[in-house]
Amino acid sequence: MKQKNNGTWVSWNENLKYNYTTKYDITTEEELQEVVANNEKIRFFGSKQSSADIAAGTDVLIDMTSYNKIVSYDYNAKTITVQSGLILSELLEAVASVGWCIPCLPDINTITIGGALATGTHGTSGKLLSEYMIECKLVLADGSVKTVTKDDELMDALRVSLGMLGVMSTITFQCEPEYILHVKEKPENDKEWLPKIKSRLKEHDFLRILWLPHTDTGYVITGDKIDPNKEVVENKGPGYLKHRRTVSKILYKYSHKFPWITSIANKIIAKAFFNSEKEHKGSLYQATVTKSRGSTLELAEWTIALDKFPQVFEELKTEINKWSNKSFIHIPMDVRFVYKDNSWLSYAYKQDTVTMGCVSRNAATADTYEAFKSVEKIFLKHGGRPHWGKRFAAKDAQLAKIYPKWEDFKEVRQKLDPTNKFLNPYLTKLVAAKKLVNEIA
Ligand SMILES: Cc1cc2nc3c(=O)[nH]c(=O)nc-3n(C[C@H](O)[C@H](O)[C@H](O)COP(=O)(O)OP(=O)(O)OC[C@H]3O[C@@H](n4cnc5c(N)ncnc54)[C@H](O)[C@@H]3O)c2cc1C
């Protein structure tokens, strides 16, 4: 096993930096067990793409990205078992190569399976990625391995658990036959798309709305399953659309100093780059997942019960359109839909849910981006839940109010990790863990 001493851990967008004393690159479950068993405090990380401070911050770290093999396929059951450091794109390619898919995907393919599951990563018009996990080998705080299956009660606590119950070692996913989507994209006024959400969710197999703050417009993306042989005349829109990232970068350059610039920039970007209709076909992965990004971002995302969304949306819109509060928001706010589940820390626990992203395109100045605060305030007021891997300020007291199983989760966590081995300072505050005698010393 490779080991590096006295280095600095830096997150993807460079907003989080920690010195560490030892970092282990593990390649086998036995190595993972050994490192976990022999260290008092430890965190483990994947692609470091979370904005939340959940992946490092302890002296000893495990880099999971070399633990990245495909272990086995079960062709009859359509399941695949992989090591948790595998990058999502590799899982999806492996699954597609045998004619299967995972039917709900995030808009990023560079994250690890372990990181994605731990934070409740999701796509739209389906369930969280972790809902497709049917078995997990979990390395516990004492280094032993526990197999958790979909029928075990622990699975509901484990599916979304921020690596606080143990390290996910190998994961088995239930896949489905691959399908082809006919994707259509077009701009619509807020008055048009907002009332149509529920009917569109029934009508289409895929629905995503890129809301363009300060423009009264949403860019509506729908997808319908079609016969793979059906001809679709591809319309990618005008060629200049490929310059969107460059133009956005220029227009937003000084928006941290003069936030009102955002309002004007968004109107220009919406007119130039979100004004045309598009049409194409492909698998969910091919047709809807972004494969490359021009620059880093700082992300927040809040979620709310489907029935409450219109009210929260109107309130948010009114608030950010007030020039007095400086909450100008970069394009786009990604509106997606997750169907209810039973996972304790899932955004969609027992309720169909709408998720709404909020990005700052200047990652380095994210601390002064007022929008993060305004969005959090409004969603929290209505019982909204934050994305675990993204930026939010809420802690234990607020989380207890919005997650019905929060205290049960904390109890299980304490049982499985009685010495708080897996807590860094951020997670300690998040779950309000009592400091143990050896930690205070
Ligand atoms: C550009 C961008 C787009 C994104 N798009 C989406 C999206 O469409 N939908 C969505 O829901 N989210 C999205 N995210 C959020 C992203 O999916 C999560 O932050 C995810 O956790 C990142 O995975 P990672 O491999 O970088 O994990 P890391 O950031 O390295 O780690 C995240 C957490 O997982 C834990 N962890 C890592 N490996 C394991 C393991 N084996 N066992 C247990 N815990 C583990 C870590 O300790 C940490 O707590 C996006 C993020 C970015 C930057």
Share in β-strands: 25-35%
What is the fold-level CATH name, i.e. the topology of the largest domain?
A: Vanillyl-alcohol Oxidase, Chain A, domain 3
Low-confidence stretches: none
Question: Could you say which overall geometry the principal axes of the C-alpha atoms support?
Answer: globular
Mean pLDDT: 96
Task: Going across the biggest sheet, name each strand in turn.
Answer: 15-12-14-13-17-18-16-19
Report the radius of gyration as a whole number of Å. 22 Å
Q: Please identify which CATH superfamily of the largest domain we are dealing with.
A: FAD-linked oxidases, C-terminal domain
SS field, number of helical segments = 15
CATH architecture assignment name of the largest domain = 3-Layer(aba) Sandwich
- Distinct ligand kinds: flavin-adenine dinucleotide
Category from helices, strands and their pairing: alpha+beta
The total beta strand count reads 19
| Helicity level | 25-40%
Task: State the CATH class of the largest domain.
Answer: Alpha Beta
Walkthrough of the structure:
This protein is α+β, with helices and mostly antiparallel strands and 441 residues long. The chain folds into 2 domains: 1-178, Uridine Diphospho-n-acetylenolpyruvylglucosamine Reductase, domain 3 (2-Layer Sandwich), CATH 3.30.465.10; 180-394, FAD-linked oxidases, C-terminal domain (Vanillyl-alcohol Oxidase, Chain A, domain 3). It has 15 helices and 19 strands. The chain has an 8-stranded antiparallel β-sheet. A hairpin with a 6-residue loop joins β1 and β2. The relative contact order is 0.14. The model has no long low-confidence stretch (mean pLDDT 96). Bound molecules: flavin-adenine dinucleotide (FAD). Flavin-adenine dinucleotide is lined by residues 43-50, 54-55, 64, 84, 106-108, 111-112, 114-116, 118-119, 121-122, 162-163, 167-168, 293, 297, 299, 387, 389. The site of flavin-adenine dinucleotide (FAD) has 33 residues, from β3, α3 and β10.
